[in-house]
Write a structure and sequence with these properties.
Belongs to the DapA family. Keywords: Lyase. The active site is at 136 (proton donor/acceptor), 164 (schiff-base intermediate with substrate). 47% of the residues lie in helices and 12% in strands. The protein contains twelve helices and eight strands. An eight-stranded parallel barrel has the order 1-2-3-4-5-6-7-8, surrounded by six helices. Helix 6 (148-154) packs parallel to helix 7 and helix 10 runs antiparallel to helix 12. The radius of gyration is 18 Å and the shape is globular. 46% of the residues are buried.
C-alpha cells in the first residue's frame, strides 16, 4: 500500500495514429487539451484504449515522454506499462518513473494464465521500482481476474496504491472494495458502473468513453460529490447509452471511440492492426446514434 491522492476522472486516452501508422502528435495534443478543458483530472497513457499492444516499447516510451513534456504538473499522469514480456513491463515502469509519471497501471501478466502466486510475484516486482501502482482487473481481456482475496493480498504490497475495476460481477466488485477500501483508491473501469462504484466510495473513474464525452463523465463525478443525484442520473444515462452504442456497433471498442470522435468532427486518428477502422457509412451511423442520445437528453453534442 502507498498513500497517494488520485481523484476524479482519469481518461484512458486514445493514441491517434495517422494514415501512415505513426503517432499523430498534433492530434494527440489537441485531444488532451480538449480533455483538460472539459475537467478531466488525469491521463492513463498506453493502456488498452491507447492500443498499447500495437506499439513497440520504443514507441511507448516516446509517447510517455511526449505527454510528460506537455502535461506533467497539469494532470495526473499514469503510465500503462503492461506487456506480454514481463521484462518490458519492468523497463517501461522504470522509464515512466524516471520522467516524472505519478504512477503506473498494470494488468496481471497477460495471455499466460498466471497462478495467484505468479500474479503476486509479478506485481511485487513492478512495485519494487517505487512508482505507485494501479492494479487493473480486467478478466475479460486477460483471461484471469484479481479475486477479492488476491486483491487484498496485493494491497499489502508497498507502493500498490490504486485499483481499476473492469470486472462485470458486481458482487465480487463490492467484496473487493470492502476488503481493500482502507488500502486502495478504487476507480470504475466500466462506465455503466460509475455511479454504482461512486456510491460505494470509489475515488473516480478510468474512462474510455470520456474520449468522446468527457464533460458527461466529469459531470457524473462532480454531481455525485455534490449530492445532486438527479444530475448523476441524467449524465449516467447518457454514458450508459453511449456504452450500449459502442457495444452494439460491431466495431472494437477503440475503433468505435475513434469513429465516434470523427462523427463529432474531432481527430482521434485511425487504429492499428489488429483493429479495423470504421468506414464512412459506419461513422455516419454512429454519429446519428450519438445525435439521438443527446437530443433525447436535451443536451448539446460534445465538442
Amino acid at each position: 500500500m502507498s498513500k497517494m491522492n488520485w481523484q476524479g476522472v482519469l481518461s484512458a486516452v486514445i493514441t491517434p495514429f495517422n494514415e501512415t501508422g505513426a503517432i499523430d502528435q498534433k492530434a494527440l495534443t489537441a485531444h488532451l487539451d480538449r480533455l483538460l478543458q472539459a475537467g478531466i483530472n488525469g491521463f492513463v497513457v498506453s493502456g488498452s484504449t491507447g492500443e498499447y499492444y500495437s506499439m513497440s516499447i520504443e514507441e511507448r516510451k516516446n509517447l510517455f515522454k511526449l505527454i510528460a513534456d506537455g502535461y506533467k504538473g497539469k494532470a495526473t499522469l499514469v503510465a500503462g506499462t503492461s506487456s506480454l514480456n514481463h521484462a518490458d513491463t519492468l523497463d517501461l515502469t522504470k522509464y515512466a518513473k524516471s520522467i516524472g509519471y505519478d504512477g503506473c497501471m498494470v494488468l496481471p501478466p497477460v495471455y499466460c494464465l498466471p497462478t495467484p502466486a505468479e500474479i503476486k510475484a509479478a506485481i511485487g516486482e513492478v512495485a519494487e521500482i517505487g512508482l505507485p501502482v494501479m492494479l487493473y482487473n480486467n478478466p475479460g481481456r486477460v483471461g484471469v481476474g484479481l479475486s477479492p482475496s488476491l486483491t487484498a493480498e496485493l494491497a499489502d504490497i508497498p507502493n500498490v496504491a490504486a485499483y481499476k475495476e473492469s470486472a462485470r460481477d458486481l458482487y465480487a466488485v463490492a467484496q473487493t472494495y470492502y476488503l481493500t477500501r482502507d488500502k486502495l483508491q478504487h476507480f470504475a473501469g466500466l462506465e455503466p458502473y460509475l455511479s454504482s462504484l461512486l456510491s460505494r466510495g470509489a475515488a473516480g473513474s478510468v474512462s474510455t468513453i470520456s474520449n468522446i464525452c468527457p464533460a458527461e463523465v466529469v459531470a457524473t463525478y462532480n454531481a455525485y460529490r455534490a449530492g445532486d443525484l438527479a444530475e448523476v442520473s441524467r449524465n449516467q444515462q447518457i454514458i450508459d447509452q453511449l456504452y450500449h452504442l459502442m457495444a452494439s456497433s460491431g466495431l472494437s471498442n477503440f475503433a468505435f471511440v475513434k469513429a465516434g470522435m470523427a462523427a463529432l468532427g474531432l481527430n482521434g486518428g485511425t487504429v492499428r492492426r489488429p483493429h479495423l477502422a470504421a468506414d464512412k457509412a459506419k461513422v455516419s451511423e454512429i454519429g446519428k446514434g450519438i445525435e439521438k442520445i443527446y437530443a433525447t437528453a436535451n443536451k448539446p453534442l460534445p465538442k
